[in-house]
Amino acid sequence: MRHTLSDYSIVLALVAMLLDVVTAHTKLYFVGTKDGMHPRRKFIRPSMGNGPIRDLNDPLLLCRSLGMDPKRTEIMPVVAGTEVIVEWHHFNDTKADNVISPSHQGPCLVYMAPLESNGLGNSWFKIYEQGFNVERNMWCTDIVRENHGKLSVKIPTKISNGEYILRPEIIALHNARRLGEAQFYPSCVQLSVTGATGGSPKMYSIDKLYSPTEPGILFDKKNGGASYVIPGPPVYSP
């Protein structure tokens, strides 16, 4: 049987799709500061894996963790105003690791909640967001990949001292033109914050952060990133 160029093109496309599936996922491996990163997964709640959450009503959207007992995870001390560094990887922390597939572009968002809430109810406030950088023509995920998985986030000073959950999240938009196909990659870190001066951020429930039809969740990446609107509530800025 003779094979046409079209046949080979289809095979190559299928192979590319399979490779994309293999290299797609990501999870948080490390957390630290400019003074150094802590050992692997220290202070990070146990992850159920590196796969995404798609259902906005899924309880796993909270932390993508089956270990929701706060006592199972150590608490990282941090001074308010410090830049906390989180570091994602796909399979491991070697230089060969691709962090997340290049096709899985999208925004990065970071939330905090009082640890005593365990993330339930109206307890979350956003402290960071980055979508599409027009000047660099790069999504936040591109920049994270460029930085070998690292993202730096400043802990607000105008909050109360105490223990918190820090929830970094990547949203991959490669299939987001279809309803329910945006991919969410949240993880949770436990912090103890000192040196804060007090404040009252408006808080939101995790299951009310996003709507499946809002422009930042239902989005055709082919339209370009310049028009992208980052989903969720505004960043807390007292």
Helix content: 10-25%
* CATH architecture classification: Distorted Sandwich
Q: Remind me, CATH topology?
A: Coagulation Factor XIII, Chain A, domain 1
Largest sheet, if any? Answer: 6 strands, mixed
The residue ranges in which pLDDT falls below 50 over 5 or more consecutive positions are 3-23
Q: What's the average pLDDT?
A: 89
3D shape: globular
| Spatial separation of the terminal alpha carbons | 70 Å
How much of the sequence lies in strands comes to 25-35%
Count of strand segments: 12
CATH class: Mainly Beta
**How many domain modules?**
1
The secondary structure category is: mainly beta
Return Rg in Å.
19 Å
The helix tally amounts to 2
Secondary-structure element order, N to C: HEEEEEEEEHEEEE
Subcellular location: Secreted
GO molecular function, one term: metal ion binding
Pfam families: AA9
Domain Auxiliary Activity family 9 catalytic: 43-222
Description of the molecule:
- The protein is built from two helices and twelve strands.
- By secondary structure, the chain is mainly beta.
- The protein has one domain: Coagulation Factor XIII, Chain A, domain 1 (Distorted Sandwich), CATH 2.70.50.
- The longest helix has 18 residues, at 5-22.
- The protein is globular.
- It starts with a helix and ends in a 44-residue tail after the last strand.
- The model is unreliable at 3-23 (pLDDT under 50).
- Belongs to the polysaccharide monooxygenase AA9 family.
Write the layout of secondary structure elements.
Elements (H helix, E strand, L loop, with lengths): L4 H18 L4 E7 L2 E2 L38 E4 L3 E7 L18 E7 L10 E6 L1 E2 L4 E2 H7 L3 E5 L7 E11 L10 E4 L2 E6 L44
Parallel strand pairs: 3-12
Antiparallel strand pairs: 1-2, 1-4, 4-9, 5-6, 5-10, 7-8, 10-11, 10-12
